[in-house]
């Protein structure tokens, strides 16, 4: 993500015209940071809320939806492992548990534990689970930033940007450029995670089928 400003919001004013909803405008001081020093030159810019019809909103929604599909595939694996050779156990019951698991790491840990409990001896499967958990970390942070950032248009340049408020993995403050290419890269990473999760699901289903009838 290209750095646009090290900004300090000096104030905000809400305006309304003809009964329209209030729109926040923030006066920015300190754009154009001096290269290599982190010091800012005093210039002025206006930030306005991203317009309702801006195409970035579609991309933000796509990131959220694609990530949810990825996590749901992990849930399906957990449900299958939980109900295997367990009479009367429907997906609704383990769903009550997975609904309380936050994020990918907890889901992967549950899959590891269930594979061990079910007696799946295939070490490559456990390695695949751990690899998936590890490879999801950076995209997970990207997904969180895209969804939780406040999005603005800088005036008068009309460039869209995300306001970063010192997130723990990248402690920057201010509005920073974010491009469609960056959305595309993040979506590609999420798509790769989906593919890996689906492959893992098939591997585990095949392993359970091979164990069919084995006492546990």
Architecture overview:
It is a single chain. The chain is an alpha+beta fold and 216 residues long. The protein has one domain. The protein is 49% helix and 20% strand. The protein has six helices and six strands. The chain has helices at residues 56-83, 92-98, 103-117, 123-135, 137-148, 180-210, and strands at 5-15, 23-31, 44-49, 150-155, 159-165, 173-177. It has a six-stranded antiparallel beta sheet with strand order 1-2-3-4-5-6. A hairpin with a 7-residue loop joins strand 1 (5-15) and strand 2. Helix 3 (103-117) runs antiparallel to helix 4.
Keywords summarizing the entry:
6 strands; single chain; 20% strand; alpha+beta; 216 residues; 6 helices; disordered N terminus; six-stranded antiparallel sheet; 49% helix
How is the secondary structure organized here?
Layout lengths: L4 E11 L7 E9 L12 E6 L6 H28 L8 H7 L4 H15 L5 H13 L1 H12 L1 E6 L3 E7 L7 E5 L2 H31 L6
Antiparallel strand pairs: 1-2, 2-3, 3-4, 4-5, 5-6
Helix pairs in contact: 1-2, 1-3, 1-5, 1-6, 3-4, 4-6
